[in-house]
Each structure stands twice: as C-alpha cells, then as structure tokens.
Amino acid sequence: MRNTREETRHLVAEEAARLIYEEGMRDYRLAKLRAAEQLGVSAHGSSQPTNEEIEAAIHQRIQLFDAETQPALLRQHREVALEAMEFLQAYNPYLTGAALEGTSSPHSAVTLYLSADGVEQVMFFLEDQHIPFQVHERRTRLGNKKQEYFPLLRFYVDDVEVELMVFPHDDRFASAPISPITGKAMKRADRKKVAALLNVI
Questions:
Q1: Is the pLDDT of residue 1 over 50?
Q2: Fewer CB near the last or first residue (10 Å), C or N of the chain?
Q3: 3-state class of 84 per DSSP?
C-alpha cells in the first residue's frame, strides 16, 4: 500500500500527464505546479514527481484511454516528420520529442533539430519555398554548457505543427541537447530511423 507521499507523487504525475497530453502544456515544471495546485497539495519537496515519472504517466494514459486512436495520430506525426526531414535534408535533420518517444497528442509538435551556418540560412530557404513560418527562441543546454537560447522556427504541415530548432554546426555536432525529462542527452533519430519506425506502427 502506498504511503501518503507516494500517493501524492502518483496523483500529481497523473494530473500533470493529463495537462500535457490533453490540454497541450509543454513545460513539465509548470504542469507539475498546476497539477499540485488543482489537487491542493504542496508544489515542492519529495511529494513532487520527477519529469521521468510524468513521462511514464503519459505513456500509461495513452494505453488506458487512447490506445485505439493514438497510433494513427503518431503515424501521421512521423510521416510529417519524415516528409519535413527529406525536404530539409541539407540541414542534417534529426527527429526528437513526442513523435520519437511515441507520445504524440493532438497538441504536440513534430520537433526537428537542424544544423546550419545560421538561422537565416534556414529562413531564406523556407521563404524561397513560400512556406510561412514564425520565429521564436527556446532555451536548452548542450553537454556541460549552461542553458542558452537557440532559434526556433515554427510552421504547419497538414495542421501538424512542426518546430525547427537550429543549432550552429559546431554546437550541433559537439554534443546533443540535454533532455529536460531525463537530464541525459536527448534521443534523436535520423531519416533512416524514422522510416524504420513507420514500419512498426
């Protein structure tokens, strides 16, 4: 039988997973804070779940409540990813995030890491192809370096949001970005791996 602290961790993880998967929250820390607030429990201390526990709760939620429809959505996101990677092959694209992990939801984006001399290079390419996009930034950490802001370009393919994080050549290949979920290098997949994943859905 779970003790009160373990039960609280479990409940917060489940609610944070729901907020991320069903309501589209993308920041795990904010999802934990909101989940704790909604449950009326402490937002700090050992009763708070880790990001890995929330990720596991997302997988569990999919299996329990969305096992029939989510695979089709996941396939769509991976097909969009492969199409975008072929389109952007000059920038050495890698897939990461929900579409790779298998947790795609109607609110999640297809996230690609690109390598370029500068974000302008990718922007000019998209403009030449008449693809409208938005310019943002996202903070991440490469290897043992401190967190930095990197450019992020956002556009849509068949109503699926595609995010392009653009890294300089030297940073891009020196080390993989650190996952905010595991604290380890982000899992990434090249075009060959993504094509193989489509064969097992």
A1: no
A2: N
A3: helix
Positive or negative CA dihedral for 162, 150, 34, 99? Answer: positive
168's enclosing H/E stretch is strand 160-168
Closest to 16 measured CA to CA, from 63, 65, 49, 62 = 49
Domain boundaries along the sequence of the chain = 4-65, 70-198
Mean pLDDT of the chain: 90
pLDDT in tens, 78-130: 999 999 999 999 999 999 999 999 999 999 999 999 999 999 999 999 999 99
Q: What is the CATH number of domain 70-198?
A: 3.30.460.10
Query: What pLDDT shows up at residue 52?
Result: 93
Which tokens is 58 given? 């997302």
Angle between helices 191-198 and 70-87 (to 10 degrees): 150
In whole angstroms, give the CA distance from residue 190 to residue 95. 6
Query: Is there a contact between 28 and 13 (Cβ–Cβ < 8 Å)?
Result: no
Candidates 103, 130, 119; CA nearest to 111 is 103
d(CA 163, CA 119): 13
Q: Which two tokens stand for residue 112?
A: 């690609």
Q: Specify the pLDDT at position 3.
A: 66
**Statement: residue 201 has pLDDT above 60:** no
Tokens of 32: 């934990």
Q: What is the pTM of this model?
A: 0.87
